[in-house]
Write a structure and sequence with these properties.
The structure holds three protein chains of three kinds. By secondary structure, chain A is mostly helical. Chain A is built from three helices and no strands. Chain A has one domain. In chain A, helix 1 runs antiparallel to helix 2 and helix 2 packs antiparallel against helix 3. The N and C termini of chain A lie far apart (60 Å). By secondary structure, chain B is mainly α. Chain B has one domain. Chain B has nine helices and two strands; from the N terminus they run ααααβαααααβ. Chain C is mainly α. Chain C has one domain: Helix Hairpins. Chain C is 67% helix and 0% strand. The longest helix of chain C is centred in the last third of the chain and has 32 residues. The chains are: A mainly alpha, B mainly alpha, C mainly alpha. At the B-C interface, helix 1, helix 2, helix 3, helix 4 and helix 6 of B face helix 1 and helix 3 of C.
């Protein structure tokens, strides 16, 4: 492995075990969320799952110390993308009637 | 190609992809062991050089401003592309928005939704404006602020009808706003060129307090223009889709 | 702990690709594409993380506090917003395909020739 900096400590660092547990938990939840989104075959239900997945991703980005990306993902992934998808689905469903 | 054959080929290709990925992973220093110099270097000098305490926004709009111009134009092209792709095909007409749908009754929007959307629309605009104008200070910036501003317009649609949405954001004005946002970004960058500096250099006064609203020169200005452009692009996109879903009809139905 | 995020990235990418390949509905395929793109955000942020460091914002903490890599955060940030616009463009293609061919099944659409 390439050489690296040692773990840093700041006045704001929490114990490493706590941070590790938090990150692994959220990572596992994100993996499960992604599987659930893909395995939901009905489009309307999948959009709701995508919204929840966006929320999980936002939590993950927060735990990775990236508040800017959290804000972006919250607004885009949990609000704007489901709206776009639901509008497209409404358009398609109307034509099938 | 049968679904079974498709799955089999996917498994083979997936195994190859996994092999390459693991090979690349072996060269990474591991999660949390960050070796590279760039992050540490930028964290050390960004605040002193640009007087902006939000280093991510300083990178977005100053150090790597040219990449952000490119990304903004992807956004612009996507919004314009939508208007072109969703043009009326032969045999379609747009029924006037006042026409009551005879073939379909939508459920009436519940009063709770309308009240909540109405109450939230104003604070959402304020929050979006705050986010777009404080890029140099805290975790905010033009992109997030623009999306939150667009959400305010969507709330107006939820609180009322499509007619209200169209009256508040007519397509001509939204188009013009988006163009102003994109052009503003490009021209702010061009402002440095007559002084003999590279495009997008930070030439406005940098202010004294790092992270104050008037500090960091062009970063705040660019963030404002980006916010305007992103908000207009998303309002345009949602307006196009709403129009398709509600207004455009096949001839003879 | 040092490889867990990258394993999760590979898992999400694999799951997203699987959904993309075996899908029977264009909108379902577009959502699987969104999941695939989200794996790249996790990869970007995972590469830039420093154990024990804080977020790179210095308005209330001293300027030389060790912070995580801000360059990958800048990349992921613009990425997220631009992806939504490109998804909207893809959705408009799906709508036009449905108008033209009457079906949203990608395996049926593949058989049309022009």
């Amino acid at each position: 492995m390439t050489p690296h900096v040692a773990a840093v400590t700041t006045p704001y660092t929490v114990p490493a075990a706590l941070m590790d547990t938090l990150q692994v938990t959220v990572l596992v939840l994100v993996a499960a969320g992604a599987t659930a989104v893909v395995l939901t075959r009905q489009p309307v239900r999948q959009v709701v799952m995508l919204s929840a997945y966006g929320l999980l991703l936002a939590m993950l980005f927060m735990v990775f110390q990236a508040p800017d990306v959290t804000l972006s993902e919250l607004t885009v992934g949990a609000v704007v993308l489901p709206i776009l998808l639901l509008l497209a689905l409404a358009k398609v469903r109307r034509r099938e009637e | 190609m049968t679904p079974a054959a498709r799955r089999y080929i996917f498994l083979v290709a997936g195994a190859g992809f996994l092999a390459f990925y693991l090979w690349g992973l072996a060269g990474l220093p591991g999660f949390g062991r960050y070796p590279g110099p760039y992050g540490t270097v930028i964290n050390g000098i960004a605040v002193a050089q640009t007087k902006a305490t939000g280093v991510v926004s300083a990178i977005n709009f100053s150090y790597r401003g040219f990449d952000t111009v490119g990304e903004e134009f992807v956004l612009f092209a996507a919004a314009t592309g939508m208007s072109i792709v969703l043009r009326h095909l032969r045999g379609e007409r747009e029924r006037p928005a006042l026409d009551e749908a005879m073939d379909r009754t939508a459920p009436a929007t519940s009063e709770a939704v309308r009240m909540a959307a109405l109450l939230l629309a104003g604070p959402t605009v304020v929050i979006g404006w705050y986010l777009a104008s404080h890029a140099q200070t805290s975790p905010s910036g033009g992109f997030q602020g623009g999306v939150v501003l667009a959400t305010a317009f969507i709330l107006i649609y939820l609180a009322g009808q499509f007619l209200v949405f169209e009256r508040v954001s007519p397509i001509a004005i939204t188009d013009a706003t988006e163009a102003v946002g994109a052009a503003g970004f490009v021209c702010t960058g061009l402002g440095a060129v007559p002084l003999g500096l590279p495009y997008l250099s930070n030439v406005l006064p940098l202010g004294t307090t790092p992270g104050a609203v008037d500090s960091s020169g062009t970063i705040a200005l660019i963030s404002f223009f980006v916010g305007v452009e992103v908000a207009a692009a998303f309002v345009l996109i949602v307006g196009e889709l709403l129009e398709q879903a509600l207004l455009v009809r096949q001839e003879g139905r | 702990m040092h490889i867990v995020p990258f394993v999760v990235v590979a898992w999400i990418a694999g799951v997203g690709l699987y959904g993309l390949v075996t899908s029977r509905h264009l909108i379902h395929q577009i959502v699987c594409l969104i999941v695939l793109q989200s794996s790249t955000y996790v990869l970007l942020l995972g590469v830039g993380y420093v154990t024990g460091a804080v977020a790179p914002y210095f308005y209330d903490i001293p300027v030389h506090t060790p912070a995580v890599d801000p360059v990958v955060q800048a990349l992921a940030l613009t990425d997220v917003v631009v992806e939504a616009a490109v998804t909207a463009l893809l959705l408009s293609f799906a709508i036009q395909a449905h108008k033209r061919f009457g079906t949203l099944d990608p395996q049926e659409l593949a058989e049309f020739k022009g």
